[in-house]
Amino acid sequence: MRRRRGRPDTSAGLSTAGWLFAELALLLLVVAVGSEVPPVRNAMSEPAVTSTPTTTQTAPPTRGLSLTTERFVMPAVPDDQVVARFTELMTARIGPDAQVGLVLLFGVSTTGVLGDGEQVSKRLKGFVEPAGLPQLRTSTDIRPYIGSRNDAGPGEVVVELFLMNGPS
Q1: How high is the pLDDT of residue 136?
Q2: Cα four-point dihedral sign 50, 52, 53, 59
Q3: Helix (H) or strand (E) holding 118
Q4: Quick one: which of 154, 64, 81, 72 has its CA closest to 105?
Q5: pLDDT mean values, one per 10 residues, the chain (168 residues)
Q6: Which residues on adjacent β-strands are paired with residue 134?
Q7: Handedness of CA 127, 93, 66, 23 (dihedral sign)
Q8: Closest residue by Cα to residue 141 from 157, 125, 123
Q9: Is 39 helix (H, G, I), strand (E, B) or coil?
Q10: Domains (ranges, CATH) in the chain?
Q11: What is the phi/psi pair of residue 84, to 5°?
Q12: Which pTM value belongs to this model?
């Protein structure tokens, strides 16, 4: 009698990758649409007639996320040094006056289990988010993801910063 062997389930890795790409695509769509919103005009009101000539004014530049990013690798450090080291690396990369709108954290597993990379990212997020860093003083969104050993060593986090552009 022949036994049927089930194929190994390989959908876990693909579904995780698909979820990540879908979320990033949604984020880029929101940024693209949000940066192209035209000013709202009231269709019911009629323009007032003036006798003085008007001058052409340019609209003030809008504030949004820059699509060019800054990256650095956050090494694994003891808990009491995490915020200081993160601040030092971020300030060296973008300066003390830059405004960050989005932070993506790609943690690399210390155990070799792929899913542990997200835990490394969440650990860093837990230290950085409540620290009140000056570059993150706006409503910065920080998202933890799984990183690759090709980009950083075990326990390290690749930090990708999306800066704000326009007037502050």
Answers
A1: 82
A2: negative
A3: helix 116-128
A4: 72
A5: 60 70 81 69 60 66 79 90 91 89 90 86 89 78 88 90 77
A6: none
A7: negative
A8: 125
A9: coil
A10: 64-165 (3.30.1330.60)
A11: -65, -45
A12: 0.62
